[in-house]
Each structure stands twice: as C-alpha cells, then as structure tokens.
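hiii, so i know i said id send this last week but things got crazy w the move. better late than never?? heres the sequnce for the chain we talked about at the cafe, plus the structure i predicted for it. fair warning i was half asleep when i ran it
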Amino acid sequence: MEETESDTIPMDVVGVRIELPTNTPILLLRERDGGRFLPIWIGTNEATAIALALEGVEPQRPMTHDLLKLVTDSLGATVDRVVVTDLRAGTFFADFIIKRNGDDDEITISSRPSDAIALATRTSSPVFAARAVLDEGGVEIRDEGQEEEIERFREFLEDITPDDFEAGQGPS
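okay and structure toks below
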C-alpha cells in the first residue's frame, strides 16, 4: 500500500541517547510540526552509526551504512525518504525509498528503522513516521520543565563520542 502525504508525518532526528541503567541506546525522533517524540530502542552499532553521521564524523573505513550509500550513489539513485511504517508487538518497522536519477519509479526496501535512519543521516534524506505509528508510540511533551529536559538532552548529545557506545558502556 502506497502511503499518502496525510498518512505520514515529517520527523526530525533528535539523536541517540543511552537509557540507564540498562545502557540501551535509544533513537529519538521528533514530530517536526508538533510536540510528540518517537523513542525507538536500537542496537549499539546502529546508535554509533547514527551518532557519527549526525556529528559529521567520517570513519577511516566505510561502515555498512556508508557502503549502502556508496552503492546507491554508484547506481545513479538517491534515497528519497525513510518512513517508520509500523509498530507491532513493541517492534518498529521502516522502509527506505530510493529513486533512480531521472526516473519516477520508486523502489521500497523494508528495513529496521535504525538502519534506514542511519542511511538517511548520511544522505540528508527526510524521515517520516506513519500517523498510526506516531499515534501509538509517540510521547507528547507539553510543559516547560520537560522542554528544559530536552535542551539538556541536546547538550548531552553534543558531548557524546563514538567511544561512549563501546561494548555496552554508557557515557560517563
């Protein structure tokens, strides 16, 4: 089923953080024109890949998501968008949609949200969430105290390094 613009909501990638005490990485998306956040628990490797891309750090050797970007570019294609499509039994699902240059046909590839968003951060591709996913899994933040918490979270993200994700260790 092809999604329509009204079925999806533009999202911004806020970043990744570590949930304590489990040291589990969380990808945090924010509704672009609203107050809801979509927290997605992800793996350590994907958290590192997203954090590196958001910080503009290029690894000495390409990571898997870098290779996927290189392959896409080599085929004359672009990542048109990423859509978090579903939430079933606590598991999120996503698609990334690619287009060949000069071609209106789209290729939809099913993916884990963390992999799709790691690719989106490398290609500056827009991220969306299905309205139903955001309605079910979104968290709304309304009061000013929580907005201050988000600002502290952003400051935390500025200080995080790839070493913070090694072997299940959280940032100190």
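btw Confidence is low (pLDDT under 50) at residues 168-172. thought thatd interest u
miss u guys!!
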